[in-house]
Amino acid sequence: MNGETILPYLIIVPLFGAFSMPIISLAGRKAREAWAVIISGITLLVGSAVFHSVYENGPMLYTLGAKSPFGKANFPVRIVWEVDLLSALMVLMVTLVAFLAVLYSLGYMKHDTGLDKYYTLILILELGMLGIAITGDLFNFYVFLEIMSIASYALVAFRNDTWEGIEAGIKYMFVGSIASSLVLLGIALLYGQYGTLTMGYLAVKIAQNPTVVAKVALAFFIAGLLFKSGASPVHMWLADAHPAAPSSISAMLSGLVIKIGGVYALARILFSIYGSSVNMKTVGWVIIIFACITLIVGNAMAVIQTDMKRLLAYSSVGQIGYILLGIGIGLAAYGSRTGDIALAGAIYHTFNHALMKALLFLIAGAVIHELGTRNLNELSGLAKTMPKTTFAFLIGAAAIVGLPPLNGFASKWLIYESSAMFNPILATIAVIGTAFCTAAYVRVLYTFFGKPSEKVMNARDPDATMLWPMIILALAIIVMGLFPWQISDKVMIPVAKALENQLGYIATLMGGA
Amino acid sequence: MNDFDMGVIVRTAARATIPLIGIFGAYVVMHGHLTPGGGFQGGATIAGAGILFLIAFGLGEMKKRYNKHLYSALEGVGGLVFLGAAMLGIGTAFFYNTLWHNGPFFNGKPGTLLSAGFLPIMNLAVGLKVFTGLVSALTAIALWRRWKS
Amino acid sequence: MIQFQFIVAFLMIALGIYAFLAKRNLLKLVLALNIIDSGIHLLLISLGYRMELNEVPTAPIYTGYETLKSPMVGPLPQALVLTSIVIGVCVLSLAVALTINAYRHYGTLDVRALRRLRG
What pTM does this model have? Predict the structure, then answer.
């Protein structure tokens, strides 16, 4: 069974699950929960199969509605899905974390109502992210971006009986809609100038004739996608939206949505569509400047928070800064070894941060579930009564700070190394950011291991459906930490090279004639 | 007293126009592959009839006729039919229009009603989904209006 | 010839952004979002007319396109705009639902009141 035959099931399976959820729900609560777990489990299997196939056989092209993307014309006219190694890695990340989040919701959302809509929305969110990862058509990308965004607006405001969810949902929705409009405006300008929407063919057209309109469109794309990824001058919505959502959703938002809908899309547009047709040094430095601001502001704001989930959300802003720094250096030093290392570090950190931040948010959810509060001042001494949870938090925090035996170390090291090679000032900024990050997490751990207050004495470790996702994520972090350089050489460097290889991306599309 | 009723003139006019709007919407859905229009436009038109009913007859009457689970399930059915039509040609490609290329029906001469392969099926499914979805959304919004009393 | 439709489209986008920044009522903000979207839709639709029978590639029309020599409207932008309108309807209904909920919790539609989340 080759990769092309199973690729559409990546979309079909979650879509089928989401559409049949209202009907399955009529059979009762147990059927609905089992259905959600089965669907996301099958999606995980398909996602790993796609990754395996791409890793073995190279990038694949899937045309919707026909065998080849060329109609009677000599240029691609149909919607295509184009999966290279980076897309496949993102697919694997999304399906894994989404499956664990669904599993976790079984226990976590037990006391909520309207759960059929919750599971429908969570599957649609997963579907939107998978679509963004595999698509090779610009308007198709916009549609999936909006599917993902609308599902996440609704999920942030899911608990509509609290003012917090509503306020965060409204802020998120306005900012997100403006960002989507900017992206759509960029797409409209590109279509008007070049008359095609297929990413690979657009790359050819832009390389032949780089006009001012294309650069204006690029500015709109960068602005919109930086909004979506929560980069610093416009990160305020993120710090409101991610804490207000239910914790399983926070894990998906912080771990996946800002990366797929922001950073991945930005990297795809910058490298695969524009590539060398624009002045890469300038664009790279623009990204680097935003990355440095994001890195410092996010991590510094994390230190002063008293709300646990808000701290984690600001920490996400900071980590997005590292990823953007890697992408910016990869762009500014395009083609050199420094660029390769920076890009590999950025992609590696994307994957690692998805696991780490998902784990941390799931732990925050477990704490809220047990104690009903997320104020750090009231959580003193949690280590006594929730030992497994605290241990998992210890692993997650150590990984995100970048301690050597865990996976965060390798990815952060790649970013430090490349930034030191590129420009020592950037390396200094990155290390300062890490210092703030360490301070924030040490503060949380200090609280957890402190003197127990009477409020936490009744807390227990959560039950199996909530505990197992955390254990799986913690084990993945440890195991990935044992083989840092092997993973880096075998997976991340090839992924970075695949992203840099714009001609290969075009050849995959045009070669199928 | 039936709350938010618009009075006898509006009710009579609505009673006369609602079937016409529904038929026009059904026409737009059925001819989606031949004329400008299709599932979304027709479904929205039919939903307009539902909204006219809601406004003219009031929320109380609407609540009697509206079954949340039924509409939710019908919306799911619409989506599933769309997905099934898209999967008919999965042997060649997702969204491959096998009905149009190979038959056995909906493969008539272009421009006639029974042509265009899976497009009429998809238009019907989308029309169902849009109609049920919009009516559900509007009813939910109308229900929220009265949280205080 | 001056392309009036582009000027109008960008005017609409600018108007929407102005309303989004200057107005304080939640419902007006929702309308501002829709005006921005409408401007972009107008831009896309007018692109479909401008481009036909040029060198630039267009979406293929399988029946009768080869024999036609007069100017023709591209079908692809219309499909794009229709998709975008559907997405706009989704966002609009969600926005209205959230606005109603906000009024329930805050008792006002003024965005300046939505400032309880701080830090």
Answer: 0.90
Collect all residues of chain A within an 8 Å Cβ-Cβ radius of residue C57: 73, 75, 77, 195-196
Based on the structure, what is the number of domains in chain A?
1
Please judge whether B80 and A22 are an interchain contact, meaning their C-beta atoms are less than 8 angstroms apart. no
**What is the domain partition of chain B in residue ranges?**
8-144
Q: What mean pLDDT value characterizes chain A?
A: 85
Which residues 16-45 on chain B approach chain A with CB closer than 8 angstroms?
A: none
Q: How far is CA A345 from CA A271, A295, A323, A429, in A?
A: 16, 15, 8, 16
Chain A neighbours (≥3 Cβ pairs under 8 A) are B, C
Is residue A52 in some structural domain? no
B123 touches chain A (CB under 8 A): no
Cross-chain Cβ contact C98/A173 below 8 Å: yes
- The answer to whether the Cβ–Cβ distance between B110 and C100 falls below 8 Å is no
Give pLDDT, residue C2. 57
Distance (Å) from the alpha carbon of C94 to chain B's nearest alpha carbon: 9
Q: Quick one: closest CA in C to B146, which residue? A: C104
Contact C58, C52 (CB under 8 A): yes
- Cα angle A362, A365, A368; round to 5: 160
With H, G, I as helix, E, B as strand and everything else as coil, classify residue C69.
coil
C52 — pLDDT class (breaks 50, 70, 90): very low
Look up residue A263 and give its DSSP letter.
I
CA distance A12 to A64: 13
Give the Cβ contact number of residue A29 at 10 Å.
11
What is the per-residue pLDDT across C4-23, written as a single tens digit (0 to 9) for each? 778 888 899 999 999 988 88
Query: Which CATH number is C4-113 given?
Result: 1.10.287.3510
Q: How confident is the model at residue A513 (pLDDT cuts 50, 70, 90)?
A: very low
The identity of residue A182, as a single letter, is L
User: What is the least distance, in Å, from the CA of B7 to any CA of chain A?
Assistant: 34
Instruction: Give the span between the Cα atoms of A448 and B31, in whole angstroms.
Output: 65
pLDDT at position A142: 92
Asked if residue A218 is part of any domain, the answer here is no
Minimum Cα–Cα distance from C65: chain A residue = A72
Comparing alpha-carbon positions, the chain B residue that sits nearest to C86 is: B40
CA distance A270 to A284: 9
Query: What are the C-alpha distances in Å from A162 to residues A246, A419, B141?
Result: 12, 44, 18
pLDDT number for residue A369: 83
- Give domain status of residue A325, yes or no: yes
Give, as one character, the DSSP assignment of residue A233. G
A112-117, Cβ contacts within 8 angstroms, sequence gap of 24 or more: A112/A158, A112/A159, A112/A246, A114/A158, A115/A29, A115/A32, A116/A21, A116/A22, A116/A25, A116/A32, A116/B72
Chain B residues touching A67 at Cβ < 8 A: 92-93
Per the listing, tokens 């929705």 go with A173
Q: Taking chain B, what is the end-to-end CA distance rounded to the nearest angstrom?
A: 15
ipTM: 0.87
Nearest in space to A352 (alpha carbons), one of A51, A89, A50: A89
Mutate to test the interface with A, among C6, C17, C92, C98 (most CBs of A within 10 A): C98
Alpha helices in B31-107 (DSSP H): 39-65, 68-87, 98-102
List the structure tokens of A106.
């079984």
**CB A53 within 8 Å of CB A3:** yes
Q: Which domain holds residue A325?
A: 279-482
> What's the whole-number mean pLDDT along residues A1-26?
82
* Residues A7 and A54 sit within 8 Å (Cβ to Cβ): no
Q: Are A330 and A283 in contact (CB under 8 A)?
A: no
Every domain of chain C and the residues it spans: 4-113
Instruction: Chain A: give the shortest CA distance to residue C59, in Å.
Output: 7
**A362 Cβ contact list (under 8 Å, min separation 6):** A100, A101, A104, A247, A248, A251, A466, A469, A470, A473
